[in-house]
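FORM 7B - TANDEM STRUCTURE REPORT

SECTION 1: FIRST PROTEIN
SEQUENCE AND TOKENS:
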Amino acid sequence: MTLRPFGISILCALTLPSLAHAAPPNEGGGGISIGGDASLEADSEGVDADADADADADASADADANADADKPAKSKSKSGDRADQKWIKRWAPERNMAELGIYGGVLLPTPNHELFSPNVDLPDQGFRELKAVSPDLGLRAGFYPLRFFGVEAEGGVMPSSTRDGAGSGLLYTVRGHLVGQLGLWSVTPFVLVGAGALGVSSSRDVLGNDTDPALHFGGGVKVYLNRYVMLRLDIRDVVSYKSGVENYFISHSPEILLGLSVTLGRKKNEPTPEPRPAAPSDRDGDGFIDSEDSCPDKAETFNEYQDEDGCPESDRDGDGFWDEQDTCPDEAETVNDYQDEDGCPESDRDGDKIWDEQDSCPDEPESDNGYKDEDGCPDEVPKAVRDFTGAIKGITFDNDQDTIRKSSTKTLDNAVKVLTDNPEVRIKVSGHTDNKGDPAHNLDLSKRRAEAVKKYLVEHGIDENRITTDGVGSDKPVDTNDTKAGRSNNRRIEFDIIKRAK
């Protein structure tokens, strides 16, 4: 969209009244005498001559006026919004731009999604497949501090229904992502990667209510039509949980979106500068005249660091820190999320993944056994802690329930004492069952029993952040399920020390 036609119309409207006032009136020529015939004839000839002269003058004035009117119009047509640039580069992305918009499209939900509220009393615990295509509507906002990089946030809804006709539900998402784009032209390809939440809202007889974490990645193209309007196409893959036990981030739902955005923050057109006399000398060609250039024979390196002195910067060790910023200009920084701002390498002499400045024993590797794993020193797990690992005898529950029996109190109180005496120890509580009954029910029961043990420990003073839980059901027996004694051994609670993640 351009303002050029409107500008030409306004200019013509302003010019025509001036031309009307400038044209000489057509009133006839000199005076008429009421004397003899000769006088009348002479006067008549004079009138004809004057009329011809006036007509010539009018024609000349009209031509001049038209020529004058044409000049502003041509000037206006060449001074439109960046009209001196080719369109393909005219609206390329700029730094510090914002984009606000809407989008619409389709989501192709995976047939094995995890978007339902499980209920053991329902077939497949309430799972139902969604229809293959769902409309996709939403809002997005983005900020681009650089031409080639930005961040965006989105929120959207995807009305859907189940394939078996049980009813409809509303899928929804809230997410954010990083965007990398080739911001050189008005047509800009991009890629993105991000994370968020994917959920469903429906009645329990359809899918219930559920929200799962989700990752997404993909790419597309933006088309900047003018200063304020942009079209956009996205093709993505939404990766979330798959229906089943521990099926994390392995289901894929393609998404195709077409968006319309308003772009904000572009630089205003700069007025054409007045012609200057011959430019002062700039020997190194870096844009700083020699009289203002601290290094007139060495070109400035424009890198957003001391770009005003006209001198190049050096990075002798090639680690991305300029020598004047670099505490160790001849030793490259080791980028490891630890003191990455000083430009110096870090050392780990014993190879235990704990840097020497953090390591209480820099020449002896950490034993990584879940006991004092953060000090960097080798150590042994105390016997009292070792005695409370593996299958814990003495923790029992009411039949087919997650209610802890009173006979378990002594064992649990001993566990509380051990954890209190060793505050650096973190544990995972796992519940196990025998193979009698429905596997899904056994899995749920094992999870609830593990949570019951955690609840007891927390209520008796143990920080809940030190305890994780897991339900295994009957998948990991330690004895045969063919005998009563074997099944009794398989129904157990296990404690495992959580080791340091490297």
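SECTION 2: SECOND PROTEIN
SEQUENCE AND TOKENS:
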Amino acid sequence: MQIKDVTNYIEKLAPLSYAENFDNVGLLIGKYTTTVTGILVTLDTLETTIDQAIAENCNLIVSFHPIVFSGLKKINGNNYVERVVLKAIQNNIAIYATHTALDNVNNGVSAKMCEVLGLQNNKILIPKKGIIKKLTTYVPLANANNLRTKLFEAGAGSIGNYNNCSFTTKGTGSYRGNEKSNPAVGKKGELIFSEEACISITFNSYLEKAILKTLFNTHPYEEVAYEIITLENNNQNVGMGMIGDFETPMDEIDFLNFIKKTFKTACVRHSGLLNKKIQKVAVLGGSGSFAIQNAIKLNADAYISADFKYHDFFKAEKKILLADVGHYESEQFTKNLLIDYLRKKFSTFAITLSKKSTNPIHYT
């Protein structure tokens, strides 16, 4: 098994095109063609993580956070990032990161938070724009059904809870092939008017390569006329954060104690109590202050995230209970999500969970 076999499987869960523009995801160190001896799953990649990989004969580290986030001008070992990169290269260890690609899927980081909290009726907090595309192409009427079917099989035509979605109009196409042409209908040099179907079909952006391959392999014409545009529609199944409900409402103090225990943290920083029951809860792993207004807009009683600054707590405006459980704490279950996912596919292969906490923050 090669590294690309593992990363291709991970990207079925968390397509890299779903990552935020500022992020650095994918295979950061190593070659896709390297044969895998073992996989180590971790939240962060530190020197101790490399040491564990060496000790357990794992030459692929699957990390949530990318060790290389911005450009490295030198690799001299002068800081922890450079030392990790050096040690990984020296020991032929590859590093792959998912980060916001996994944040943005509906069964990713925030979904895992909902799971451990026991939230129900979960949906995306901030649906993502710019990842729904539309293909429009023209095909002879006799070939329209087959082309639609093949495009559906390739993953096109899925919208929310629906699949096999498309729109077809009928019309007349015209063309004249030159002496080098090989027209599927009519003869070269002849002006042809053909009854055609115009097929429009949407697809998720990460499927574009597969969709085009299917189009070219299935379409009968020598020259395929098509266009692809990016739609402004939100994708309700992709995006940051989630919001769901407790089956039974909680008192605020009970809620704070519950999340303190659930996220195994010594401290929960929170906004002022509102003397109301907590039932609808928004969550977002990692730094989530940017989503406070989204949680308020969706009438969440509480919002659990991390890295709130002093002035962020004022944004509660006595409308919501903000709870900062800590960055590491909010994302700690992500490595369990990844290892469970990988073991379903590679059940007989050595996949190890990182042993040590990589949380750089301590409480006294």
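SECTION 3: OBSERVATIONS ON SECOND PROTEIN
The CA atoms of residues 50 and 88 lie 7 Å apart.
The radius of gyration is 25 Å.

SECTION 4: SIGNATURE
Preparer initials: ____
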